[in-house]
Amino acid sequence: GAVVSQHPSWVICKSGTSVKIECRSLDFQATTMFWYRQFPKQSLMLMATSNEGSKATYEQGVEKDKFLINHASLTLSTLTVTSAHPEDSSFYICSARDPGQAVETGELFFGEGSRLTVL
Amino acid sequence: GQNIDQPTEMTATEGAIVQINCTYQTSGFNGLFWYQQHAGEAPTFLSYNVLDGLEEKGRFSSFLSRSKGYSYLLLKELQMKDSASYLCAVQDSNYQLIWGAGTKLIIKP
Question: What residues contact residue B58 under an 8 Å CB cut-off, 6+ apart?
C-alpha cells in the first residue's frame, strides 16, 4: 500500500514556541492531505484538509492562524503549531488517500503520528 | 447532527470470537470503514463496506446494514496482538469521514 511518513514522532517544546510537523507521501503524489488531532481516549478529529498549491480548508473551530498548514509540493504537507500552549498537547496525525483508487473507496493511509507535549 | 456510536471498551479471551458494533447517523452515506489503532500509533485500514452484507478478510469480517445504520466488525481466533482500539468511520455525502470514538478491545489469555 501507499506510504505516508510523518516527522517528528515525538516533540517536547516550551510554551510560546512554534513546532513544525512534516507529512510526506513517499511513493505517490498527494494533492490532498488530511490533518487530524487525537486526544487520549477520544476519536480522531479532522483539523484541516491540505490542498497542494492552494489554501488549506479548516474545520469549524480550528484556528487557521494558530495551526498553519502549507502544502507546497505533491509529496509534502507541513503543520506548524504556533505559540504552542499546554492545551495543544495532543497526538497529531496526517493522512492521504491513494490516488490510484477512486475517492469513494479509497482508504486513508496514515503517517506514524506526532505526539506533541507543550510544557 | 452526525453521530457514530460504538462501545467504549470490550474484553475477550484469546482464541475466542468478538463482535464490535457500530451504529451511525450521518448526512448521506458513501461507505463505512473499520480501522485498527494500537496505542500510540496511527490507524491502519481493516475494511470497507458500501453495500449491505458481509465482507470477509481472513480472521476479520465486517457487516453492513444501511437501512439500520448499523455495522459490526467480527474478529475470530483472537490473538493477543489484536488488543487495540477499533475505529468505525462513515463517509458522508461530501466524502468526509466521520469517526467514532473507537472501541478498546482487551484480549485476556
Answer: none
Interface of B with A in 40-79 (CB under 8 A): 40-45, 48, 50
Residues 86-105 of A with CB under 8 A from B: 91, 93, 95, 103-105
Structure confidence by residue, pLDDT tens digits, A91-119: 999 999 877 766 666 678 899 999 999 99
Cell numbers for A100: 490510484
CB B49 within 8 Å of CB B31? yes
Rounded Cα distance, B18 and A95, in Å = 29
Does the distance separating the beta carbons of A103 and B41 come in below 8 Å?
A: no
Read off the pLDDT of residues A45-89 as tens digits, 9 standing for 90 and up: 999 999 888 889 999 999 999 999 999 888 999 999 999 999 999
